[in-house]
Sequence to fold (247 residues):
Amino acid sequence: MQQQKISMRGITKVFATDEMETHALRGIDLQIFAGDFVSICGPSGCGKSTLLSLLGLLDMPTEGSYQIEGQEVSGLSLSEAAFIRNEKIGFIFQSFNLIDELTVFDNIALPLRYRRNAVPKAELQERVMACLKTVDMSHRAGHRPNQLSGGQQQRIAIARALVGSPALLLVDEPTGNLDSKNGDAVMDMLSELNSNGTTLCMVTHDPRYADMASRKLHLLDGRILDADGTPLSQQAQQAPLRQVAGH
Ligand SMILES: Nc1ncnc2c1ncn2[C@@H]1O[C@H](COP(=O)(O)OP(=O)(O)O)[C@@H](O)[C@H]1O
Ligand SMILES: [Mg+2]
Fold:
């Protein structure tokens, strides 16, 4: 059976201030399996970034269950969450988020240097160089991010996201700051990573890029819609062929 990476059940997120409560997510049921490429689209304010930050353990849900590779993570403390995030999740943002004071090599090495169990120097070197090769940037290891074009910076950000061999790659508008040629190249790279087995969940406004995913989700007012625009039932939202007979 295909390995389950992610399972969300009844996830809600309420942001409360003195004046009002914002129900950013209103009961999300979502399963992501090894090798999936899931795209999430929807209008501004529908909850896309909130969902990605919960998936990435940058924030905790108000209610519901969230499991990563079978481990319940919804009630974790912030430091426990940071540890799991570093081990299991890779992030690619619209705004690259590279550190200009560090070389390309050191930017990519960063997630490994934050590991609780230190990665030996030779292994770190090998993994960083392998990821640079994957994104075709081996010749820029000693550069600073601000010496590179936007497209090249996003490729470095992809290498940084990959270096820890994450269970899940979370991608938020990866082409938002790129021209169409560089955007297409970054998307081709993500698509190829998925073909080679990387599990991807991507937020995008661009229907062409959303179509590259194997599963397209539409979010509206904090709920996942089906193709007709109606909220999915809990049952229907589970990926097909997962129900084991005899239950
Ligand atoms: N930290 C926050 N505090 C209060 N409200 C928030 C916060 N983050 C997001 N929201 C609200 O939650 C809703 C969903 O936001 P968001 O997930 O950023 O939407 P999207 O990424 O789809 O544009 C919006 O109404 C937004 O204003
Ligand atoms: Mg957003």
Q: What stands out?
A: Helices lie at 48-55, 78-88, 104-113, 121-134, 150-162, 180-195, 207-210, 234-237. The beta strands are 4-16, 21-33, 37-41, 63-68, 71-72, 89-92, 168-172, 200-203, 215-220, 223-225. The mean pLDDT is 90.
